[in-house]
Specification:
The chain is of the alpha+beta class. The protein is 53% helix and 9% strand. It folds into three domains: 266 residues, Transferase(Phosphotransferase), domain 1, CATH 1.10.510; 147 residues; 80 residues. It has a five-stranded antiparallel beta sheet with strand order 1-2-3-7-6.
Length: 595
């Protein structure tokens, strides 16, 4: 039975940067913001009953990496069908015939605020320790699914969100439902291949992988995935495995045991290890990285303490030296004062003798005066010699006004010791700084605050979508941005060869650059599912879309992204219908305020 989801106020935009299609919505019955995940990919659409089976299986599990499923149901969606051959037996003109209405299942999920692993890898925003921690959580979640005989089947970097609470696999329910709808029989080996390739991409970097293989880093989740059969060829699978065997140990320094597991995981399905084995090896590697970081932090702390001790020691030494200098200066000052007092006493004695001699001259006559003068001269000479001797001994002159000379050489030794102490402190500081710089990891990045994957921006006058979605967006308003899927379905026209799970997105002129970029992404996804994009064009298209997402999110010029998109459309082998469709949307991308 088809249920029109009238209780949801659906925003006029969906989430970008994730594997499946998600719509931001407001559940008016519960008065909460939610995600609506539509069960369609390429030409395959899962029904409500198939969603019911997947939901029942997942609700038995309790793991933080599996989001809570609040509800599920079924809606009517217009699905495009491929044109049949004409009467002459040749291909019909055009790619798409009349659209038909199909019953497509959906799930209502609890919103999760975070950023996809794909976006973080393309930005190079994770350290090696953070990468291994995240992939270990993914391996643990896969281990739980495999224990109850469930297979994700479509694992990719776009399936993984990194949040404050840890890793979340946001598309498990849709993957299980679509697996049932397609009739595919996948084994846990498919998930192991996808996980091993994620480890290789994270170690080497997106640009290195795409340059090496000439295709997008996320091309095909596994050789067993029927959606990847056209691009993940046997030749590409073998090239990936040979590359891993050459580089994991020699270039990236992975332990031999973990490298052997990853190489085996990229081989034949029968020889792939279990999720438990991969999780254990990744966890050991993560512990090694954490210990290395801890050792570096401890060394930095020890170095800082050594610097502090050195500075304190130098300060104490300087204080002691200054005290010694001050004490010796006081001693010199006391010696000078004693010398001055002795000189004053000698002068008083001389003056008294001179005065006595003068009296004798007056009273005793010339002879007596001459004798007295002789005695006085001798006394004066003796006093002068004595005074000069005292001054020489103390290092000062015979008169109190004379400035005392500099102290002996021993007075300057504490100052030299101070200079030596300061030099030692400088050498310690230089050694510690050099040691810290040598321990600094080369692939660090402050995990940025987790930000949501960019979502298409609402048209002017329309309320934003759920603020707790992966992208940072405002809450949808039921009165302004809300619209039912049924109303949207009646206004949409279908382009491309796959089902349109977002009614009206490709047929209606976009009202903003963000909405235009969303339609470009949908057109590329549908064309890839239909096998209309050659492998050599996938990488340039992904990079152009990533550049446009960053430019539109920051409000800057989209000139670089548009240029990359035009160059990607010149790749040989692209469907002319896809080229024409994206060219018609470029003018709306160029309408950005920053262009």
């Amino acid at each position: 039975m088809v249920e029109r989801i009238n209780r949801f106020a659906v925003a006029d935009r969906s989430l970008a940067g994730v594997e499946y299609e998600y719509w931001l919505a407001f559940d008016e019955a519960r008065a909460v913001e939610v995600w609506l995940q539509i069960g369609a990919l390429g030409e395959v659409a899962a029904s409500g009953s198939q969603f019911a089976g997947a939901v029942a299986a997942l609700r038995r599990l309790n793991h933080p990496a599996i989001p809570a499923i609040l509800d599920f149901g079924e809606i009517e969606v217009e699905v495009a069908v491929e044109a049949e051959a004409d009467a002459a037996g040749g291909p019909a003109d055009g790619v798409v015939a009349d659209a038909v209405v199909a019953d497509v299942g959906y799930a209502v999920l609890e919103p999760v605020e975070g950023e996809s692993l794909a976006a973080l890898l393309m930005r190079g925003a994770l350290t090696e320790a953070e990468v291994f921690a995240a992939l270990t959580e993914v391996a643990d979640a896969l281990k739980l699914l495999h224990e109850v005989e469930l297979v994700h089947g479509h694992l990719s970097a776009y399936s993984v969100l990194l949040t404050e609470r840890g890793v979340v696999l946001i598309d498990v329910v849709a993957s299980l439902a679509l697996e049932n709808a397609s009739g595919a029989v996948l084994t846990p080996a498919a998930d192991i291949y996808a996980l091993a390739w994620l480890v290789c991409v994270a170690l080497a970097g997106v640009e290195t992988v795409e340059a090496e293989f000439g295709v997008g880093f996320d091309t095909g989740s596994s050789p067993e995935d029927e959606y990847a059969s056209g691009v993940l060829t046997a030749e590409l699978v073998e090239r990936r495995r040979a590359w891993a065997r050459r580089n994991l140990v020699a270039v990236f320094g992975i332990e031999a045991g973990l490298a052997e597991l990853l190489v085996a995981a990229l081989g034949e399905s029968g020889g792939r290890p279990t999720a438990a084995a991969v999780a254990g090896a990744l966890r050991v590697r993560g512990v090694v990285e954490e210990e290395a970081v801890a050792v570096g932090a401890e060394a930095a702390e020890v170095g800082a303490e050594a610097v502090a001790v050195g500075v304190e020691t130098a300060a104490v030494g300087a204080a002691v030296a200054m005290e010694e200098v001050a004490a010796e200066d006081v001693a010199v000052a006391e010696e000078v004062a004693v010398a001055e007092e002795s000189a004053v006493a000698e002068e008083e004695v001389i003056e008294a003798e001179v005065a006595g001699a003068a009296g004798a001259v007056i009273s005793g006559g010339a002879e007596s005066a001459s004798a007295v003068q002789a005695q006085t001269a001798g006394a004066v000479g003796g006093a002068a010699v004595a005074t000069l001797a005292v001054g020489a001994e103390l290092g000062v002159g015979a008169y109190p006004e004379t400035k005392p000379p500099s102290g002996p050489a021993k007075h300057r030794r504490p100052k030299s010791a101070l200079y030596v102490a300061v030099g030692i402190v400088v050498l310690i500081a230089v050694a510690v700084i050099w040691g810290l710089s040598a321990r600094k990891p080369t692939n660090s990045a402050s995990p940025a605050t987790s930000v949501g994957p960019s979502s298409a921006t609402a048209s002017p006058g329309t309320s934003a979508g759920a603020s707790s979605a992966p992208a940072a967006v405002a809450s949808p308003s039921p009165s302004a941005a809300a619209s039912t899927v049924a109303a949207s379905s009646s206004a949409s026209a279908v382009a491309g060869s796959g089902p349109s799970t977002s009614p009206g997105v490709l047929a209606t002129a976009p009202s903003s650059p963000s909405q235009a970029l969303q339609q470009v992404q949908q057109a590329v996804s549908q064309a890839q599912a239909a096998g209309q994009i050659p492998s050599q064009a996938q990488g340039p298209l992904n990079r152009a879309i990533g550049t446009l997402q960053q430019e539109i999110s920051s409000g800057s010029s989209v000139q670089q992204g548009v240029t990359q998109l035009r160059q990607a459309l010149n790749s040989p082998g692209l469907s002319q219908t896809l080229v024409a469709q994206i060219n018609s949307l470029i003018q709306y991308l160029a309408g950005s305020s920053g262009s």
